[in-house]
């Protein structure tokens, strides 16, 4: 089905400025929580990431040294072919297995190659049927010993590591402000979530979706990123202007609405106990995608996954459950939860 026939989503566009300058904290917080309750996503304007900093990161993501390929033609989409290419050109060094387990460093996910690496990484059948055609470079905070960063060899892309780490910490600042707003909007003390986010066990992902035949995307032979929900407390996402992100319609499971690029906006999603929805989303062919050669343009996005401190026991947020709407999920440590989700997804 062409995306043009899909309704657009109800994701609200909220100006975060009045929260940051203190002129209308409560009003902004209420709007964010209302969009989260409705659809689990919100577009934030004036979020605190200067446009030139995002542009700089998009320049890095587009750097050819980070790419396996710019496009896959029809013939290339023979999965064995892709698989072989991915294995023949592992990103760098010999840390491939580590990289996949930790999901850090560069990963190329044109077909789940982890199937060959470790049976634990077998992914759900429906995802294998329409494999993701994407590749990503990921990093966390440099001091993280549990999941050490894996950088490109010295001399490759000078400045890249510093740019990633600077951006990582900038996003962390933005995260803390959004968590403050979220707490306020839920009727909690502004600092409520901060006590559980003292060490950013977060992940910055630079995502590249190579150009692929539109028809293969529409026929669901491949996808860009299959339907999933994120693992952490919130995700911040910068997307380029290509489009293709879709979120599940809260009123109709299995049906998706486009979340088109809004210039300057940061897309934020969250999740707890379904009151604040942890909405399933995916990336497909962009809206109104027509091109002379039948190929989608390449697409880039930069998600930043925010997690509670690994030692935190993740429980449903006060205010999202009561006697009539009991907790749907049992408390679990953040680390155990993330690892469980990674094992079942990656
Ligand atoms: O590329 C996008 O727009 C979404 C990426 C995403 O959902 C993810 O990496 O979890
Ligand atoms: Fe996601």
From TrEMBL:
Matches recorded under Gene3D superfamilies: B-lactam Antibiotic, Isopenicillin N Synthase, Chain
Protein name, per record: Clavaminate synthase-like protein
Residues in Fe2OG dioxygenase domain copies: 200-308
Homology family: Belongs to the iron/ascorbate-dependent oxidoreductase family.
Domain of life: Eukaryota
InterPro entries for the chain: DIOX_N, IPNS-like_FE2OG_OXY, IPNS-like_sf, Oxoglu/Fe-dep_dioxygenase_dom
GO terms, molecular function: metal ion binding; oxidoreductase activity
Protein keywords: Iron, Metal-binding, Oxidoreductase
């Amino acid at each position: 089905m062409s995306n043009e026939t899909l309704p657009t989503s109800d994701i609200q566009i909220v100006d975060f400025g009045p929260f940051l300058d203190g002129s209308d904290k409560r009003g902004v917080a209420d709007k964010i929580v209302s969009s989260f309750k409705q659809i689990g996503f919100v577009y934030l304007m004036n979020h605190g990431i200067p446009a030139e900093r995002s542009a700089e990161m998009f320049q890095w993501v587009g750097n050819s040294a980070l790419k396996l390929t710019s496009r896959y033609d029809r013939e290339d989409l023979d999965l064995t072919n892709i698989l072989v290419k991915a294995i023949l050109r592992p990103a760098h060094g010999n840390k491939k297995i580590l990289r996949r387990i930790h999901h850090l460093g560069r990963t190329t996910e044109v077909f789940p190659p982890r199937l060959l690496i470790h049976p634990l990484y077998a992914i759900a059948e429906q995802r294998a049927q329409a494999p993701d055609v994407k590749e990503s470079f990921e990093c966390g905070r440099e001091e993280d010993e549990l999941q050490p960063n894996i950088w490109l060899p010295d001399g490759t892309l000078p400045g890249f590591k510093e740019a990633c780490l600077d951006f990582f910490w900038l996003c962390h600042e933005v995260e803390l402000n959004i968590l403050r707003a979220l707490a306020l909007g839920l009727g909690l003390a502004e600092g409520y979530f901060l006590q559980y986010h003292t060490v950013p066990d977060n992940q910055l992902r630079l995502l590249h979706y190579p150009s692929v035949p539109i028809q293969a995307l529409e026929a669901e032979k491949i996808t860009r990123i299959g339907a999933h929900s994120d693992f952490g407390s919130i995700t911040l996402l910068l997307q380029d202007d290509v489009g293709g992100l879709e979120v599940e319609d809260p009123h109709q499971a299995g049906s998706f609405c486009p979340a088109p690029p809004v210039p300057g906006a940061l897309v934020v999603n969250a999740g707890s106990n379904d009151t604040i929805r942890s909405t399933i989303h995916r990336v497909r062919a962009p809206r109104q995608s027509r091109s002379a050669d039948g190929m989608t343009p390449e697409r880039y996005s930069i998600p930043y996954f925010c997690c509670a401190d690994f030692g935190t026991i993740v429980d449903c947020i006060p205010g999202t459950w009561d006697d009539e709407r009991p907790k749907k999920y049992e408390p679990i440590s953040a680390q155990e939860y993330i690892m469980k989700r990674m094992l079942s997804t990656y």
